[in-house]
Amino acid sequence: MKTTARILTAGALLALGTMAGCGGGQGDSGTGSQTGTGGTGAGAQSAAATPDASQQAQQIFSTRCAACHGAEGYGDGPGAAGLDPKPRNYHEAAWQDSVTDEEIESTIVYGGAAVGKSPLMVANPDLGAKPEVVVALRKIIRGFGKQNN
Ligand code: HEC
User: Fold this and answer.
1) Which atom of ligand 1 is nearest to the CA of 120?
2) Which pTM does this prediction carry?
3) Does 9 reside within a domain?
4) What is the pLDDT of residues 61-80, one digit of tens each?
């Protein structure tokens, strides 16, 4: 039993040694250049995705949010007429001062009902996986407040 184990171990060590010896030399050039190419590709993709977040947010705001909040954030979108409560005017400095970035962001993702506001403010669960887009949406909302009108 013991002898067999030793032979097996020796065999395994030999096999490992041979594989490492062989693979090491070949692998260096092969794997190295492959990793380099893959890395550059992925890097270029994620670098392009970051500035895109604000574009995505602009698009989401005009297609999903403007219906109620208005394209300019006055709370006067066509869908707001029948709402009670109505979406607020984002240009109000007093509201901008009263709310934290986190409150704005969680209202966007989880909806009004989850944060003690009206359920008329719908949740956007898909944005839970895109925190950078949520941040960009919050910046759009903050931007309306800075327009000072
Ligand atoms: C169906 C109409 C509707 C849509 C669509 C909608 N909202 Fe709202 N939203 C509301 C209403 C109504 C309120 C006010 C809720 C309240 O005051 O209780 C609100 C509140 C909010 C608030 C909280 C403001 C506050 O009073 O503190 C944020 C932030 C917000 N919405 C962002 C968004 C964003 C971003 C989108 C698009 C992804 C969006 N909303 C889409 C109706 C809507």
Assistant:
1) 12
2) 0.73
3) no
4) 999 999 999 999 999 999 99
